[in-house]
Amino acid sequence: MSSPANLDWELGDILGQGGRWTFDEVLHLLASRMQGTMSAIEGAFGQAGWYGGGAAPYPAPTIPFEAPQPANPAVVEVDRRLWIARYNPADPDFDVPDIADDSKFPWQHPEAAPREGWWLSTVDTPRGRPAISEVATGDLVICQRTNPTGNGGDLVGVCAIGMTASWEDAQTGRRERAACLIPLTKFTYPVPRSIARRQGRLRVQSLRAGQQLPGRQGPIGFGLSFVEWDDVPELISVCGIPPEALAETDTARLAARLRASDTGNRLNFKLRYDAVVRNGVRRIREREAERAAEVWADVNGYVKHGEFQHVPLAGFDLLFIDAHGDELQVEVKGYMTRRLAAVHLQPSQAQRATDAAAGQVPAWRLFALLGAGTQTLDERVLSPQSVVDLISKGGLRVKGGWPTTRAH
Question: What is the pTM (predicted TM-score) of this model?
Fold first, then answer.
C-alpha cells in the first residue's frame, strides 16, 4: 500500500518545478480554461432553474422588526460567510465601475462572469489585500453601488465567490490572490441604505465601519469588508435572504431560489428573520486546509484555480495548473484529530479516486490537514491508489458506505 507523502514531494513529482507569474500571465492561463468553467456554471444554473424559472422561492421575513427578540432563537450553522463589496461609479481605478448596470456587470448572465473579468484582485486593489486574501470560494458578497460622493448608495444584488486564483507574483514579489464574483441574483428592488437607516435598519457596525477580517480585525474595508456573525441576520433580513440560504451547499440551487424570491422589497424594512447564525466548524477546518494546500502551490510557482467548488459531485475541491497547462485536482479535508482514519469521503470523491487510480486524467490527490486549529499541523497527501487501498481496508471511510469491489 502506498503511504502518505510530503506534499512538496508528492505534488512536485506531478507538476515539476515552476516559476513566478505576472497577473497577466495568470489571466492568460486561466483564459484557456475559462470556457469549461463558463459551461459548468451555465449547466448547473440551468439545471437548477435559474434561467427558466421553476425554483422554489425563499420565504420572506414575517416577524415585525420591533418585536421582542426570542429567548431561544433558531441556530443556523452555515457553510458560507458574508461580505459586502462597495463600488463607486466615480472611482478612477475602475474602467467599467457601475455594478448596478446590467451592461457592465453580468447580473443576467452569470456564466459570463469569469470572462467579463469582475475579479477582486490584490494586484489591482492592494489596499484590500487582507480581505481578498481571506475571502473563500462559496462565500457570499452583497454588492453596494455607492454614490459618487462616497456616501450611502444602494445594495443591488448578491454574488458568490466562484473561482479563486493565487500565485507568487514576478513583479510584486508577493503572494497575490484574485477572486471572481459570480452573480447569483440582482435584487428585485435595490435597497437604498439611507432610507433603510432612516427606518432604523442597517445600523450595524459591519456596515458603519466594516473591517476587512473576521473578528473586527484588519484595516477598514473601503472596498471589501467582512460582515460579522452578529450582524448577518440584520443585513440579510433587509435584503430578503433567509439565514438558511447561507447553509445551502449547492451554489446553483441557491442562485435559482434567490432569483425566484422577492428580494430587496422595502416591506422588509419593517420585518426580520429570527435566527442566530454560526460559522460551521467543519467549514472552518476545510478553509484552513485549503489555505495550506494553496500556500504550497504559490511558493512552488503554480497557480491555484478554484473551479466553482460548490458544484455537487465534482469529486475535488481545488484545481492546480502548472506552466504547461496540466491540471491536478485536489480533494481537501481538514480535521482537528490527528487520525487519518477519521477522514470521511463523499461517494463522488471515492469514485474520483478510483477513476484516477485507473489512469483517468487529470491527476488527483487527497490532501488532509490533521491537527487543524492547533499549533502543530500535520499535512498528509495521498495518491489515488493509496486512497483506494485504504477504503478497501477500512482505513478511510465513505459516507453511506462504499462497495469494496468498486475500489479496485
Answer: 0.82
